[in-house]
Amino acid sequence: MNNKPYISIIVPVFNGGDPFHDCVSSLLKIDFPNNKLQVVLIDDGSTDNTAQWLNEQKLPSNFEIITHDENTGRASARNSGLKFVRGDIIIFLDADMVVKPDFVEQHVMAISKSEVVAVSGLLISDPGQQKTNLQYYLFEYRKRGAKQFGENNPIPFNYLITGNMSVKRKVVNECGLFDEKYIGYGGEDTDYAIRLWELYPNGLRFSSKATSIHYHNETIDDLLIKMKKYGSTNYLRLLKRHPKHVNALAGNWIYSLKGYLVFNTVVKWVVTTVFFIIPLSYFVRYFIAYSLIMGARNPVEGIPKFDK
């Protein structure tokens, strides 16, 4: 037991509701020595009863709460946690995820090799909910996500998912904090993954045993609205900051000939029509990409257009 590394888990939350309650409940059941485990919950200016609920819980001493007076975004919330934690290994978890008792132990085993610096765990859908086409694509599609690379092979930066990710503290010290310019949906996690990968291009891994149930209950329409907004804001910030990785980030589809041939209203209409007849989950990939590219072609005021 004394040889185990010290682990810190960072969980930012904004208006968490029942999924966050379940998340905390699962963290209380983690099978790992309390004197080697620190759980930091960051209430990022919630406007529901999250703060009251946390104050009412009789959490053990290794659970610590940070409270933001206002909502500052996931990058800022995670940074508050990073400035506070003491762990040799840091695990990031989203507030709508539930983990098994061996969650920490599985991350420790996966990241223990000297050449491994960060590990992305497996996200699975709510087993009690009927799966939609979106959920099949997000969680079951075998060619999506880090699982396609297997357990012991390096994974590219764009498959390192910050929700359910472990990273060694010494690497965090080198990489620094999350970029708080990414306010709103998306970007801050990919930016961080790129910076990790540039330091250790062979050091990122996937673990199918470090699992978390993701209570992803939004509809495909909700997600597409978020992706279009992301495309018109943080996605363009990401492309500007990392010009070497434009192709890996799909920036070469925004204004190229192939991009206009694939992502236009006519093709979108055809794909939508076929999807209503044959509702295959694979088509969800096109809708997500279409929303992203359309957003990137129409940046919000103050965000410059992409120019490779």
Molecular structure report:
- The chain has 308 residues and is of the alpha/beta class.
- It folds into 2 domains: 7-214, Spore Coat Polysaccharide Biosynthesis Protein SpsA, Chain A (Alpha-Beta Complex); 220-297, no CATH class.
- The protein is 39% helix and 17% strand.
- It contains 12 helices and 8 strands.
- An 8-stranded mixed sheet has the order 3-2-1-4-7-6-8-5, sandwiched between helices.
- Strand 2 (37-44), helix 2 and strand 3 (63-68) form a beta-alpha-beta unit.
- Helix 6 (169-175) packs across helix 7 and helix 8 (220-231) packs parallel to helix 12.
- It starts with 6 loop residues before the first strand and ends in an 11-residue tail after the last helix.
- The mean pLDDT is 93.
Determine the CATH superfamily of the largest domain.
Answer: Spore Coat Polysaccharide Biosynthesis Protein SpsA, Chain A
CATH class term of the largest domain: Alpha Beta
Strand content: 15-25%
- Uncertain segments are none
**Ends distance:** 53 Å
Helix and strand content put the structural class at alpha/beta
CATH topology assignment of the largest domain: Spore Coat Polysaccharide Biosynthesis Protein SpsA, Chain A
Spatial extent as radius of gyration: 20 Å
Shape verdict: globular
Number of domains: 2
Helix content: 25-40%
Task: Please give the largest β-sheet.
Answer: 8 strands, mixed
**CATH architecture descriptor of the largest domain:** Alpha-Beta Complex
Q: How many β-strand runs?
A: 8
SSE series = EHEHEHEEHEHEHHEHHHHH
Could you report the average pLDDT, rounded to the nearest whole number? Answer: 93
With helices defined by DSSP (H or I, 4 residues minimum), what is the helix count? 12
- Lateral arrangement of strands in the main beta sheet: 3-2-1-4-7-6-8-5
